[in-house]
Amino acid sequence: MFKRIIPALLLLVLLCAGRIQAAEALLTTSYGAQYKGFDLTLVRTLKPLGNDRFVFESNARGSIARIEESSTFSRDASGLWTPELYRYSQSILGISKKYELRFDTSGKKVTYSDKKGQQSISITPGTLDPLLYQLKLQQDLARQTGDYRYRFVSRSKLKDYRFDIAGKEKLKLEGKSSNTLRLSKQDNDASQETLLWFSPDNGYQLMRLRHTEDGDSYSISLKALQQSPAFITWLQ
Known about the structure:
alpha+beta; 14-stranded antiparallel β-sheet; 58% strand; globular
């Protein structure tokens, strides 16, 4: 009996090890963040799922706040990004909110779902989700496309963002100085301002973000970075 069980257990261990290895993150970034006066720790990871599918996750946690996002998407050989599923969950001072966006394979429809029900939204192919457009911006900077415009679904609405390179600055990461590109989001609302700093020296990672709106502010600063050599190839 034991002669049968032991090989089976070894096979199970090998299979599990293969799955763990396949799920190793291409990218892990850790940020210090502030959201509406609360201090948070933000961790983002990019993991391969196989068959040109990936999951990009963002988890922010603090003493009285938690914000979690995940984007499951695919990217084919031609470089087309196709979102599949976006999930958002938030809990601040015990008040929780969550919703999800499920994209149709045709690229022409997305279903928004929350506790109140569902809503179907018509979209055009190339429309992204609130997390994925940020990763796409990083790739476009690495490729120096010069065109940084994105359409994405936010809750049940379509939004269009455009970013321009506004200058260059030096910022520090783990005690080392890094060159950065400073981007500004173009906005017709004078009460809003969004600035982002990306580092060409570090795989065009987002080094800093600062957003202000009607007196409220949100900011993040990169504290630690782990990226596999495969990520740079993936980014290109």
